[in-house]
Amino acid sequence: MAGVTSGADPDRLDEISELMRGHAEQIGQLSETRGHASTVLRASWSGPDMEYLLAQTDHLRPEMARTGSTLVAFADQLRHQADEQRRGSGEGGRRRSSRRA
User: Which pTM value belongs to this model?
Assistant: First the structure.
């Protein structure tokens, strides 16, 4: 594989961007699963042990949302950089693939 001597490989940036978006989606799904699990747990168990367990994980949901949002922002920036690289290389900012996450 030949290395990039100047600038960036826009196709690779797009690939990484898609991966980041996929990871952001997975984090969102985990957050939803955690929320559902908490609801089921509350309906199935009561007492101080359950409250302690949920209190230890309640902070995770907003943190996961922030992490997912950060990954999406990074992915958007990579797409932008790939488009800029294409324009700078005379490719007109076109993406290799028409698929956009």
Answer: 0.72
